[in-house]
User: What shape does this take?
Amino acid sequence: MAPRVGVVVFPGTNCEHDVASALALVGAEPTLLWHRDRSVGDADAVVVPGGFAHGDYLRAGALARFSPIMEAVSTFAAAGGSVVGICNGFQVLTEAGLLPGALQKNSTLRFMCAPVVVTVASDRSALTGGIPVGTELTLPVNNFDGSYVCDATVLDALRAEDRIVLRYADNPNGSIDDIAGICNEGRNVVGLMPHPERASSELIGSADGLVLLRSLLSVAVA
Assistant: This one.
């Protein structure tokens, strides 16, 4: 049976079908989960995709955290389920307290849409399990609030506990310590700003995102 992956949809989400299509390419069975749903169903993993949840009128992810589906996602994560937040999804996970730190405006104060190179910094997470440390991947970023920030105590913990999973090779947005993605203490919740689903074919510039999505499935069903 194909691994089942729930893809959360908020009003304003715009990457859900891209994520579903990329997941299908690596053998998953994606299912869209509406933000008012109160269960993730029989999902083996959950992805919170990119976009502008609830218009991001207050602060990116700040309203989405109150949607009923996030209580279900939190319960799923607490039970050890694999959860990945991409771009706006990363912002939602920090606002919901599933990941530490926050995302603020890019240091350029400009919206950024470009391919970037990231390096796998840890092979012990729901998204990078089994991928050799040092592997370079080309993935696109598409954000205005993409600069990851946290206090010194959190940064020390992320470093000491091997919870920085991806780093930018050439930091495009001013993220502290070149951080492109992190995981929680349980290693089953991951947030990243680059879009793996938008790097699903060489025809669109890179298929490197499939490396991460395959890892997600292998970890989720292990």
